[in-house]
Amino acid sequence: QLVESGGGSAQPGGSLGLSCVVSGYAERHNCMAWFRQPPGQERVAVAATYRSGGGTWYGSPVKGRFTISHDNAKNTAYLQMNSLQPGDSAMYYCAVRLNSGCPTLAKDFAFWGQGTQVTVS
Questions:
Q1: How far, in Å, CA of 62 to CA of 112, rounded?
Q2: For 64-84, what is each residue's pLDDT tens digit?
Q3: Bridge partners of residue 66, in order along the sequence
């Protein structure tokens, strides 16, 4: 089970932080990612990280502004979003993958959170 929190509204240039607590079978995950989905558009990855700390990946639109992190002791992942822009407005989802590798396609992740809305205006 994945439970997200955070999100909400921010002005352009502002910051927001998201959290995702992982429990149950999903705790065995190897890779954690954050996705976002604007209305009427596909769900795309914005950041991903190995649970072991083996590396991180950021989508081009958020590189340098967003930071993904993972606290293994708390089984919690975070997404710190700075310098927010109206284009960042979307539903944000955390997802984890148990298998090896840390891809960035939604189809490769089996466990998902319920989503949290981020609105920048």
A1: 21
A2: 999 999 898 999 999 999 999
A3: 81
